[in-house]
Write a structure and sequence with these properties.
It is a single chain. The protein has 231 residues and is mainly beta. The chain is 7% helix and 58% strand. The protein contains one helix and 19 strands. A hairpin with a 2-residue loop joins strand 18 (213-220) and strand 19 (223-230). Keywords: Signal. This is DUF5050 domain-containing protein.
Length: 231
Amino acid sequence: MKKIGIALLVSILLVLMAVPVQADNINYTTIRGKGRTYYLSIEFNRKYQMRSRLYQKTSSGKKVVAATGFANENRLEYVGTYGNKLYFSYKYNTRIRTYSYTIGKSGFKLENGSLYLQAMRGNYAYGYRQIPDDNSPTKLYIYNVATRKSTYIGLGYFSDIKYIGGKIYYVRYSNRYRTAYIMRCNPNGTGKKILKTLKNKYPMYVFTIRKNRATYYIDRNDEYREASVRY
């Protein structure tokens, strides 16, 4: 009976997935810049493709000022604002892009064809050039949106980097993840300092970085154990 129930549930889900749907907004991100308000939406069509549309708030409602076409995973993510530009990141399979929208104009513009930005402070942002997987880190970069120049800061996981108190904290790996350096630098990539060096005979992963301490996991033959460190 249990197997019959599971089979019936799977059949119902497959039928529901096959039913065409109308284009639908799955979320709105509210963005403000230069005294204006924008809304970034992600929308689906009947083929389950998606597009990103940027609306500007007006006195009569809202109008579209930039949009992508419908495609698989055509999702832009808002990163930040600098000057008169809004910045967005895109990734799908092996494709990574950074786009911008200039306030008062129309359309998205390609800013960088090989960089995905995660977060911004002023004219500096951090991100990576390769889509990481579960088994390997990626190359981390600092990107100056004003000059469009990038600075390499180390090999690490995109989840192990963040802004804390005006600085960037991240983890750099070597020796097949058996050596981890907890790092700190300025938003522009200068002033790099090793706060703590960790060495283990087993690989170390998934750091949760805080200002004075961090937690992480040790992979002992596929048995993950949590550990912590202060610096």
